[in-house]
């Protein structure tokens, strides 16, 4: 695993009395929480100024930089792994508040068919291509989830179940961000070149581009970039996000079938929380102000969690990027784009 040497993290040789360790542990977690949220705030500010750089990727890069800076690494590496997991899982739960099943159903049979077929085909084709390329199952599964569902958030959600190496998680996040960014400009331009209507291009963008923020950016480039185009693209994308639960379950089963030593519930509590949040959003009981606040908190929590993930990574092990991983990312992106385009032209 691409972690810093063990000596960078102090480990007591014998357990101390609870009265002595508990206050120190609480103080450590508090300091780490303050640092993680501060980094998340910085990442949000940077991504606002440079929209093509998502806050989750920025926070991950800051974490990697901190973990690889002499004198600083001992303050951030391995200090609060449980807190990092709690932040991630809380963010995934709140992500469910972005999804209303009624909005997904409003896409109609054709829109839902585009989403389902694109997600299933992209995930399955990525798994098959990864196996043929000889890549490790965990990395392939992370890429398959990220490219078929919702980018870095899906990678992080699946990682929490399959317990992949931090190196593989970072590589999958970097790839899904780079390829999704390329698609921001490519999909609107190609939609115009192919003679698609604004609605068709919006559906194509939502069904094929990896991150939610990237879909929004692409929608602004479609036609006049009006509210209708934005709403269509975002709704299609969130319909893909709604499939996070089944993809997470399938991913966990695939990886555990190849490694019987992996433990943990097949359906983790945070996934049930995600589904519960979707149900709450669907009822319409929450006012828009609460939903907007929850959306901002979701990004903050996931960014803070990605900072924690980054602190467990040695930067030199991420470069050069493996050629086979680049090839797999290219295949996954092309499958998502071509399948979605074919279905849009036939059904929308």
TrEMBL record:
<keyword id="KW-1003">Cell membrane</keyword>
<keyword id="KW-0812">Transmembrane</keyword>
<feature type="transmembrane region" description="Helical">
    <location>
        <begin position="326"/>
        <end position="347"/>
    </location>
</feature>
<feature type="transmembrane region" description="Helical">
    <location>
        <begin position="215"/>
        <end position="236"/>
    </location>
</feature>
<comment type="similarity">
    <text>Belongs to the UPF0324 family.</text>
</comment>
<dbReference type="Pfam" id="PF03601">
    <property type="entry name" value="Cons_hypoth698"/>
</dbReference>
<feature type="transmembrane region" description="Helical">
    <location>
        <begin position="266"/>
        <end position="286"/>
    </location>
</feature>
<feature type="transmembrane region" description="Helical">
    <location>
        <begin position="170"/>
        <end position="195"/>
    </location>
</feature>
<keyword id="KW-0472">Membrane</keyword>
<keyword id="KW-1133">Transmembrane helix</keyword>
<feature type="transmembrane region" description="Helical">
    <location>
        <begin position="139"/>
        <end position="158"/>
    </location>
</feature>
<protein>
    <submittedName>
        <fullName>Conserved hypothetical integral membrane protein</fullName>
    </submittedName>
</protein>
<feature type="transmembrane region" description="Helical">
    <location>
        <begin position="56"/>
        <end position="77"/>
    </location>
</feature>
<feature type="transmembrane region" description="Helical">
    <location>
        <begin position="97"/>
        <end position="119"/>
    </location>
</feature>
<dbReference type="GO" id="GO:0005886">
    <property type="term" value="C:plasma membrane"/>
</dbReference>
<feature type="region of interest" description="Disordered">
    <location>
        <begin position="1"/>
        <end position="24"/>
    </location>
</feature>
<feature type="transmembrane region" description="Helical">
    <location>
        <begin position="298"/>
        <end position="319"/>
    </location>
</feature>
<feature type="transmembrane region" description="Helical">
    <location>
        <begin position="33"/>
        <end position="50"/>
    </location>
</feature>
<dbReference type="InterPro" id="IPR018383">
    <property type="entry name" value="UPF0324_pro"/>
</dbReference>
């Amino acid at each position: 695993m691409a972690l810093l040497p063990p000596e960078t993290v102090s480990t007591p040789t014998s357990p101390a009395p609870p009265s002595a360790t508990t206050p120190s542990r609480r103080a450590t977690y508090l300091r780490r929480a303050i640092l993680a949220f501060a980094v998340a705030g910085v990442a949000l500010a940077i991504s606002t100024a440079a929209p093509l750089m998502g806050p989750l990727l920025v926070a991950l890069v800051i974490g990697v930089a901190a973990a690889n800076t002499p004198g600083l690494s001992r303050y951030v590496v391995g200090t609060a792994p449980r807190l990092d997991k709690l932040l991630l899982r809380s963010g995934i739960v709140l992500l469910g508040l972005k999804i209303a099943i009624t909005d997904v159903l409003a896409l109609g049979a054709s829109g839902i068919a585009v989403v389902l077929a694109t997600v299933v085909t992209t995930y399955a084709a990525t798994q098959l291509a990864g196996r043929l390329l000889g890549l490790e199952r965990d990395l392939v599964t992370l890429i398959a989830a990220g490219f078929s569902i919702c980018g870095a958030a899906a990678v992080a959600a699946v990682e929490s179940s399959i317990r992949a190496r931090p190196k593989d998680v970072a590589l999958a996040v970097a790839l899904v961000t780079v390829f999704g960014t390329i698609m921001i400009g490519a999909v609107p331009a190609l939609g115009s070149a192919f003679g698609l209507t604004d609605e068709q291009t919006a559906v194509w963008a939502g069904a094929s581009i990896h991150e939610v923020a990237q879909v929004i950016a692409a929608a602004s480039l479609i036609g006049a970039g009006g509210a209708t185009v934005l709403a269509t693209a975002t709704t299609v994308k969130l319909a893909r996000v709604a499939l996070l639960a089944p993809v997470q379950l399938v991913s966990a089963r695939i990886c555990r079938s190849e490694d019987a030593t992996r433990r943990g519930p097949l359906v983790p509590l945070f996934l049930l929380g995600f589904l519960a949040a979707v149900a709450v959003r669907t009822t319409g009981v929450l006012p828009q102000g609460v939903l907007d606040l929850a959306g901002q908190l979701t990004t903050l929590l996931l960014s803070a969690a990605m900072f924690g993930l980054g602190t467990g990574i040695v930067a030199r092990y991420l470069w050069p990027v493996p050629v086979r991983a680049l090839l797999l990312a290219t295949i996954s992106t092309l499958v998502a784009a071509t399948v979605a385009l074919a279905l849009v032209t036939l059904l929308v």
